[in-house]
Amino acid sequence: QDVQVIGVPDDQYGEEIMACIILKDDESMTVDEMKQYIRDHMAKHKVPKYIDFVDSFPMNAAGKILKFKMREDAVEKLGIKKDEILIASFGGSGGSSKMNDTIIEILKNHSSTTNGIKHIHACGKKYYFEIAKQYPELVKKGKSTKIVDYIENMPEVISASDIVITRCGAVTLSEISASGAVAILIPSPNV
Question: Does pTM top 0.90 for this prediction?
């Protein structure tokens, strides 16, 4: 009947996809059946790690779905540490050298201790290989800080994040607005 997709924290990848599904009346399906259906109809990397069958989605008085509440519920159901903060930062699909330099300095200072914070930074494909060569410790999976070239599932990452740091293009602004995430927006001429 309806589905909402959210991001939930993950130790190895920073976050994983969770699909919250309301089945049609008188319909039933197992998690394995749903995953097989998705595998048969979508790309392999889009199959969510977690599936939760729900009766309804939390909504505000105006009828808007509260994804932050869905994420809180998912974190509780999955037993993920509530005290961890997820920060996502990115400089747009092409990246931003000035933003990369600033974020890398921050990550270098905080990569050895987690302090309950996970940070994922998308540096842009054109910058990734040089950064990976210079800072291999920041691109390894499973760390509290991680640099990737590109975030494929941006809406999920934004909704799973406690704080988003980004340039403020139109598409990014609409994704942040839809998710209700807290954001630090950097005007493009300054990055």
Answer: no
